[in-house]
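On clarity, I found the account of how folds are encoded harder to follow than it need be. An entry of this sort, consisting of the sequence and the corresponding backbone structure tokens, reads as follows:
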Amino acid sequence: MLFASRPGRLLLCLLGSAVHGEQLDVSMMLNNSSTLAATPPRAPSILELYKATQPAPQDSFHMQPVRAIHARVQSDAPVFLEDQGLFVSKVGLPDFEAAYTSAMDTVNTASVEGALMYVQAEGINYNLRGDDQRCQRKYGMKYIVFYEVAVAQTNETLALYQDTADQNEYGPMVPMDLGRCAPVAAATDPQKAVLPKECYYFNGEDGTPNVGPFVGGESKELDVRAPYPDNVWFSFPHTCPTKTWADKTPACRASTRRGLCPPWTLPDGVRCTFAYRVLGFIAIDDVVGITSMVHSGTGRPYRNFTEFCEDGGVEMRATQDGVWEEGLAFWQDPQNETANAARAQHLVQAYQNLTDPLRSRGSTQIDAAVVARMLPLPSLEALAASNPPCYRNVARCNTGESCRRETFSQLCRVCAHTDDQGCTLAPRGFSFPRLARAVGADGSTGSADKTQQDADRKKKTKETPRPTTRSASPHWRHTLEVPLALASVAAALVINAARR
């Protein structure tokens, strides 16, 4: 099965359509009960390809790396380097390490299950764009890129957040903006912008405890415009996270801790906390069916969204609250969780079809040679089998309750019943260690208290702060400013703006 479901949640099957098919109808997706084709032969995972750091840390306990699949909405496509055998950002080329770093240099990602939420809520509503921008998606959204990540938090992260974390194994999600933590309103003066306290915890700055560059995670399921089940956003801080890309000096980078590991290196929670590789990507136009529709003038399939729009096509028009007015059948019923889950599953199937030589019809927007370098998404069963059981990394899974990993994000969740499928109890005699918190120069051990904004996100509301971000990297000197106005944060899905 594609998506693990929580108790009582409807588990939907995907349409087994090719990337290029007829315009897709959500009702057809909901009524289709066919199962997915067998997964292609398994490719080595990031846990097998990348190497552990040497020498290994000597502490008695360290979080075992967890493998997961995340997604990002981007305006530019990753570039495959034959010599390294990896996709990287085009920003930073021809320097391989610079291009590798650029793709995950203090950014946000989303769960695969929630990747389309950002597109749906912010990118395609005609009523939210002026006439001069009507025929381009907001921020130039063009691709969904799939990232295989490996995460190992610091011991100090687990010690501080294990009792309060929104997502087990993660710290709080920190919105990233221009390569740094996005400013928030000061508690004492709402008119004053300050960096969140967690941003200082990454390196113990300003006397705070040195918790380390933890990966954050937070549920974003409840946006009224696009409620997607299992939609979780993540933050990945790298070096010099209090500075924008333009202000990150070599000295600042050298004096702060690595979040992103060097290429081909697994995280250990000490020297670095995450690694990644790009599995592949798919054009949004292919997913929603635009490239299978025919131009009224030429009689040929549309090349892209702009051509479709200029021919009078409407991808989606909705009220500011997300109430449907008109658009492609693919986006119909945008406020329905079941319909949104079906859309997410179709995205996965479309990508699997694209990367399957026996089923793929290719893409008019992605070169066949590039598609040939892509890897399919692993099954949830394969992901779970490659990961440590939850009780080894999560203290609350050692209290007599069983836990299991769910979704492409491989999140540890407490099971409703200890004997539910995939649920694992800690073996007799195993006990989770008592981990020490970091202590700052000011004597504090940090605060994991929930803020009012954290509480408010539980409510179904679209009222959110609207900071800005710029999608680029420290190596690109001509970045385009890109304002993000989404849900309860900005830049959770970093969009790489068009680059020269």
Remarks:
- The mean pLDDT is 84.
- Residues 26-483 form one domain.
- Residues 30 and 342 are 6 Å apart (CA to CA).
- The chain has one domain: 26-483.
